[in-house]
Design goal:
single chain, alpha/beta, Rossmann fold, two-stranded antiparallel sheet, 9 helices, 9 strands
């Protein structure tokens, strides 16, 4: 699998060496097979195989040796998550004492893990789900990152920054990978389509609990709440950023940003393979 469009600094932009990855994570071995082109690969419709592959990718970092989380939680594709980190680094001018706020870190705590290992950043990571935070804290403890990553729980499911930001907080950048769907039903329908496209009839081929997959009003509603709340804390973070999967949501967000006196609004295109997405960034 070739990831030609990844960020130039992305360590996975030349594809996967499965022999090396099996050394990183021996549990991957049983899922590696030869494809019709004679190359080693895995069955990407098999969630267990995908999870072991991404563990192997993460374990290529010397500082990370344990990454355990329940199967019902989303398994993030490491190369794409790493790209967000690299593009944020490009965005940041002052590279000293970088502190990042990660909204919706999930059970895997993936962005803080990558940010700490790649750039030695510090993180405050949030989530609404206590079980996810407990799992994330175990990962932090197991890899001795307590001094770099702090977790905070969001108690109001409609808020994003409110109830999280404290009086003396100061962040270099705020990041977020928002939920895509408007409801659990919409998320289930999308999962069924993905399963069929991969030739797999499993109803739940792609994992993810409710708060990871959907938010009332979907991505658009989440982004506009995030934008509005950022205007209430304009000096708390130099940059506010988010992944945006739906292109039409970018224009809507840009229009609203003008009404909220955003001083700079920019879009960073990002793609991996056939998937096209973007990072929207704004500051006051």
């Amino acid at each position: 699998m070739t990831e030609k469009k990844l960020h130039p600094k992305n360590k996975f932009n030349k594809g996967y060496n499965f022999n090396e990855l099996i050394i990183n994570n021996p549990s991957l071995k049983e899922f590696v097979l030869e494809n019709k082109f004679g190359n080693l690969s895995i069955d990407f419709s098999n969630t267990k195989a995908v999870k072991e592959l991404n563990k192997a990718l993460l374990f290529s970092y010397d500082k990370i040796s344990i990454w355990d989380f329940p199967d019902e939680n989303l398994c993030p594709p490491i190369p794409g998550r790493l790209d967000y980190i690299h593009y944020l680094n490009d965005l940041i001018v002052d590279k000293n004492d970088i502190k990042v706020l990660d909204i919706g870190t999930g059970a895997t705590c993936i962005y803080p893990l990558l940010g700490v290992t790649e750039y030695d950043w510090s993180f405050v990571a949030t989530d609404i789900d206590l079980d996810s935070l407990d799992t994330a804290q175990d990962i932090i403890d197991d890899n001795n990152f307590d001094h770099k990553i702090e977790l905070r729980q969001q108690f109001d499911e409609m808020n994003i920054l409110k109830g999280i930001i404290e009086e003396n907080d100061s962040f270099t950048v705020t990041m977020c990978n928002p939920p895509f769907y408007k409801s659990a039903e919409e998320a289930r329908g999308a999962n069924k389509r993905k399963s069929r496209n991969l030739g797999n009839n499993a109803v739940r081929n792609f994992s993810g609990n409710n708060n990871e997959l959907w938010y009332v009003g979907g991505e658009k509603a989440f982004l506009h709440t995030y934008l509005y709340e950022s205007s209430q804390f304009p000096k708390t973070s130099t940059w506010f950023t988010s992944l945006v999967s739906k292109k039409e949501n970018v224009e809507s967000l840009k229009k609203s940003s003008k009404k909220l006196n955003v001083s700079e609004f920019k879009v960073i295109p990002m793609s991996q393979g056939n998937k096209v997405t973007r990072i929207v960034c704004w500051r006051f």
